[in-house]
Write a structure and sequence with these properties.
Gamma-B Crystallin, domain 1, 2 domains, globular, 3 helices, 4-stranded antiparallel sheet, 7 strands, 17% strand, 188 residues, 3-stranded antiparallel sheet, alpha+beta
Length: 188
């Protein structure tokens, strides 16, 4: 009985956070329009928050990489997670910093699902030490199955690994820094 109450309390807490975030996102366009000039603009922060809220509300409905990564406590700071299994099974990487070689964790080329709950973009690289082609993963993005043709190392056209699938090919990763350019498409 106690376990059921704890599960209900966690679910209620997640739903409360999602509803509050949706309400905040809904208020952003109205507030921004009052301060904006005659030119149309889209605040970057509002777009990132909206992305995170959309992913959070869809992920809250069931298990998967996003929820599994969110549930991992890494010194009370959220990061990004790589999993050896589909749907967020068998966590391999749960980082809040740069990881120059996934082989250090026996995770290199074993990625099957991924989630970024860090608040910043994450770059994943084809080669160790942040070398080779890379893919940019926006905050709030996740995939329960990286084995899709559209998930490729799509940046660094003259680097080794350019155009290769990400699935079972990540060798290193960095968090934060520059904005995502050419980010991976949304997980369908």
């Amino acid at each position: 009985m106690r376990c059921k109450r704890m599960v209900r309390a966690r679910l209620l807490a997640r739903l409360t956070i999602a509803v509050a975030a949706v309400a905040a996102v809904a208020a952003i366009p109205a507030t921004a329009s009052m301060a904006a000039s005659g030119h149309e603009s889209h605040p970057v922060g509002a777009v990132n928050l909206a992305e995170t809220v959309r992913h959070a509300s869809s992920a809250a409905s069931g298990p998967g990489a996003y929820n599994a990564c969110w549930d991992i406590e890494v010194y009370s700071v959220r990061g990004y997670c790589g999993f050896k299994g589909l749907d967020g099974a068998d966590v391999c990487v749960d980082e809040v910093t740069d990881l120059p070689n996934w082989d250090e964790l026996d995770c290199r080329n074993l990625d099957e699902s991924f989630a970024n709950v860090s608040g910043d973009p994450v770059r994943v690289y084809y080669s160790p030490n942040f070398e080779g082609a890379w893919a940019c993963i926006n905050n709030g993005w996740y995939s329960n199955d990286l084995n899709k043709d559209v998930y490729t190392f799509n940046n660094g056209p003259h680097e080794s690994g350019y155009g290769q699938e990400i699935w079972e090919n990540i060798a290193s990763s960095t968090q934060g820094g520059a904005n995502c350019t050419n980010p991976l498409p949304e997980d369908g």
